[in-house]
Amino acid sequence: MLSRMLNNAVAAGKRVRSETDISKGSVSISSAAAELSEMMSASDLMLPFAESRLAVIGAGKMTRLLVTHLASRGLERITIVNRSMQRPQELAEQFPDVDIEIKLMDDLFDVVGRSDIVYTATSSADTIFTEQSLSENGLAGGRPLMIVDIAVPRNVDSDCNNLEGVKAYNVDDLKAVVAKNTANRQKEMIEAEILLREEADAFSAWRESLTAIPTINQLQEKADSFRKQELQKCTKKLNGLSDKEMEAVERLSRGIVNKLLHGPLSHLRKTEGTEEKKKALNELNAMFDLGDLDVNDVNSA
Q1: How many degrees, rounded to 5, is the angle at CA 93 between CA 92 and CA 96?
Q2: Fewest CB within 10 angstroms: 2, 147, 253, 257, which?
């Protein structure tokens, strides 16, 4: 019973994910950053997201989550800039399918200068990018640059948007994406609940069908007993048959019994509802003289 229930639960979850959009849309800051940059790359950069050169500043937990979401979108090359080499190297080991280039903070603006999208995820209390710092390092007025800040406190000053060709997004922008996707998932929950009720009803129907098993077994045993008795009576008349011929007679007699029982047993298995099942069991018991049915067995099962 428990094994069947767990298997049905897993199957129900898979059905909900495949038949609804409940699993679509980012609901975390790191996944929202990947979604937002993919969504805005064409308008902000005039470049497909898959062809964008990516860089991440910082190598902490947020970077690990971000790389996970970027990799799931098919991005295979990412440059990570950090104060030390240890954490970026650990990330490179965790993501063997992603070509991770590691740079130190001394090369920060050089990396930004050759990147299309830059994600900032450091623990710095001070801003890393400002309108002045980008201008002084020749990153204004050139080719488009998208900066997505997922750090708290912020790593990017809002005045960066004043620069031509620079588009900066912060956590507030990402929260708006998360809120929208969360609202969409709430709508999908209604459809998901309908599917789960269907799966729950199917499991309940299977569970109720178990109440018929003792009666089915009893009927099959009684029918087979009659078959063997009648076959035994004909033993003397069948002495002249070979072993193969006797085996054929056995198969024939079993086939006749099975076909006679198929109709009532199928009807019993398909009957749904406790009261309907109990009524069908009582009728079958009376019809084939199987003895009194214990109603408590049906209800408890």
Answers
A1: 80
A2: 2
